[in-house]
Fold this protein.
Amino acid sequence: MQFPTQRLLNRATWLKIHLYLALIAGFFFALMGLTGSISVYREELDELLNPKLVIEQPEGKRQSLDKIMAAVQAAHPNRYGSWTLELPRFSHGMITVWYDKPRETFFELYAPLMVSVNPYTGEVVASRFWGQTATTWLLDLHTQLRLDRVGWNTVGILGLLLMVSIGTGVYLWWPGIRGIRDALRIRHNAGMIRFAFDLHRLIGLLSASILLLLAFTGFHLSYPSVLETLVGSSGMEHGETGRNIISTAIPNNHPVGLESAEFVARGSFPRAELRRVTTPAGDSGIYRINLRQGSEVNQRHPYTTVWVDRWSGQVKEVRDPSAFTQGETFSTWIWPMHTGEAFGATGRFTWFLTGIGLFVLYVSGLLHWLHRHGKVKDREVNFSALRSLFYRLQEMGYRAGLVFFRLTVLLLQKAKHYAPQVIKGCKTLLQRLRSMLINRQKRLGKNDWE
């Protein structure tokens, strides 16, 4: 007689759960993976599709924030209220000025106006709405399936289902200690279906931990209140700007400008990097200066914030991540872990491959299921069709190598006049290095170098 727990842990039960999840939600998993991979490099792709957003040769100093804001208001004179200036992270990038609720997209969940401004000339280069460009459309598809709040909640639920799917997949993969080596093999000579199944198991195993992390963080981005309840934090969700602070000073004829507000804010964090400045809205509005300290993991959306009164020029409040509780600090990691920016360029590329891997998992699993139901016939895996491509790439490699060799020879010929100076410099460097090593050994009492 089997107990209920034994029936629950039965392999056939987990196989059915894994299968039904794949059939019901697998397409959406694949869609999330593919759109997420592309969105990892959203900014780079946007610049590739819109070359006018790239400053080829940055020259001179950056225009003041006041001049930048004046240019934006001149281009959009009928848009009143608060604007947010986002500083570029690289010298070739544009300043992006955000207007949260334009009348054209007012009833959409999130569709701000994005104004791109050349920081060196103050020229307004482009004015676009979120969701109406290729990259923001794809990101909306990833975050809310282009269905506003309903889609946002659905994506969160998909994150939970993906965690279950990954867990059941790892359980079904486990072959026992003796079978691990065989379970890691990819048999390309046993037919297309076997090859797809082996690929499915291997990619699933390699990407399981990262996919679990992405599903976990994705769920909490959709339902931030759950995490806030668990870790005892509040107001820490991605995009949260902190408390609603208003000005209590009497309006006057000498309001503080953007540059002055930034200067005041830097008094608390002199070494921090300026990321955003939000302008006041109405007489009770206040400047919100968003800075990034070197210890913060968030690159684009750091939490260091200073509120500056535009009438008195005084600091009204400061939010310093170094004073956060452990729960609040954990909350700040959710977004950068989901995007991969917490782990640098390597992390972003790994996240990109993992999203592609999720798409491959769906295709390979679906192919195996269709074969079992007689919808797809097995066939031999023929890699010979790729040989011509391989030879072509090999030939291109030889040509590139030849060009590189000729360039090297040319550079050596041009540098022959400088050879004596280079050799002399190398000798001097080696002599200094030798002296440093001798002095170090003397300090250690082991002078074996002379």
Summary: Confidence is low (pLDDT under 50) at residues 446-450. The CA atoms of residues 108 and 148 lie 7 Å apart. The first strand starts at residue 84 and ends at 86. Residues 192-222 form the longest helix (31 residues).
